[in-house]
Amino acid sequence: MNVEAKYRMASLYVGDLHVDVTEDLLFKKFSTVGPVLSIRICRDLATRRSLGYAYVNFLQLADAQKALDTMNFDLIEGKAIRLMWSQRDAHLRKSGIGNVFIKNLDKAIDNRALHEHFSAFGKILSAKVMSDDQGSKGFAFVHFQSQGAADRAIEEMNGLLLGGCRVFVGRFKSRKEREAELRLKASEFTNVYIKNFGDDVDDERLREVFSQYGKTLSVKVMTDAEGKSKGFGFVSFDTHEEAKKAVEDMNGKDINGQPVFVCRAQKKVERQAELKQIFEQLRKARLHGCQGLKLYIKNLDDTIDDEKLRKEFSPFGCISRVKVMREEGHSKGFGVVCFSSPEEAMKALTHMNGRIVGSKALNIALAQRH
């Protein structure tokens, strides 16, 4: 083993540091267990403010192990530090091997308590309760040295009471895996969301309209405290094919003289994932120096031409291009609107998606960069 590899093995990650902790303070603490080669607190390049974590390199592997065993969760400047072996290989960190996800966690459980609850199943590389300024967010991650330990933790801890909460414990899933699952759910939806039908439509009227597409398992018009319709509701179908047909046929159609917007119903986590994807596209647009962004507008009323489309979207920013696609002089029902900045496009998408223009509810998505 070469010297560099030996030092890398004797390196600890120190997390959850108070912003006022210095290298000198860490050196004094960790040198009590053995010779320390170097300490680096990671800092913001512009402000030099601590990012809340550091790396400590020991001369001897045994000293690093002793620090990990005896100093984890010690208080420095009033905050409990979190120690783990330094793992610089991003692929190994993100592989998911040995990683466990915990949710519905009692807010009183901190990193130390989390570590204690799960250490019986095998050697833990890291245990982290996710938190913000208000404290625990109610979910956490535990990374075991082996997948076998992770499997035992999932089998024995899932559904148990910790503190006052019954926890969910499952395999960690990468962002790509979670997004793939959401896309699969989206492609197999059975629940439909309907809005803009006014306050004269009740459950029975909505059932009457949508039962032509198949067996409805549930129909619900949302109401306020006085029982008055809020103008939107949900229909759950027996099969995906029935739900898909209802969306295709009813979006933009009239119910009691009102053109309605109909689409698949999304859970909160699906909406958040979709918004996250949009923001990621905006981030990439800025990264590549893109000055604007293109919106793809579907379900256009036949009466909407370039000027009318521009008029509808101009309140949201500077438009560089508007085009309603036509064939032999007739609208094909879709078009594009190009804004001068990604932020303007995002604002337009947020405000205009589902809005009735002419007699139809617009369906808007981000298109490729122009």
Helix % is 25-40%
Trace the largest sheet across and list its strands.
2-3-1-6
- DSSP summary, beta strand count: 24
Distance between the termini: 53 Å
The gyration radius over C-alpha positions equals 28 Å
Which class of the largest domain in CATH terms?
Alpha Beta
| Total separate domains | 4
Shape-level CATH architecture of the largest domain: 2-Layer Sandwich
Largest sheet: 4 strands, antiparallel
Proportion in β-strands: 25-35%
Number of helical elements? 12
Give the rounded overall mean pLDDT.
Answer: 85
Shape: elongated
Q: For this structure, what is the CATH homologous superfamily of the largest domain?
A: RRM (RNA recognition motif) domain
- By CATH, the topology of the largest domain is Alpha-Beta Plaits
Low-pLDDT sequence parts: 1-7
How would you briefly describe this protein structure?
The protein has 370 residues and is α+β, with helices and mostly antiparallel strands.
Structural notes for this entry:
The chain has 370 residues and is an alpha+beta fold. The protein folds into 4 domains: 3-85, RRM (RNA recognition motif) domain (Alpha-Beta Plaits), CATH 3.30.70; 91-172, Alpha-Beta Plaits (2-Layer Sandwich); 187-264, RRM (RNA recognition motif) domain (Alpha-Beta Plaits, 2-Layer Sandwich); 268-366, 2-Layer Sandwich (Alpha-Beta Plaits). It contains 12 helices and 24 strands. The chain has helices at residues 3-9, 23-30, 61-71, 90-94, 111-118, 147-157, 175-187, 203-210, 240-250, 268-287, 306-313, 342-352, and strands at 11-15, 36-43, 50-58, 75-76, 79-80, 82-85, 99-103, 124-132, 135-144, 161-162, 165-166, 168-171, 191-195, 216-223, 229-237, 254-255, 258-259, 261-264, 293-298, 319-327, 330-339, 356-357, 360-361, 363-366. Strands 2-3-1-6 form a 4-stranded antiparallel beta sheet. A 4-stranded antiparallel beta sheet has the order 8-9-7-12, covered by helices on one side. Strands 14-15-13-18 form a 4-stranded antiparallel beta sheet, covered by helices on one side. The longest helix has 20 residues, at 268-287. It is elongated.
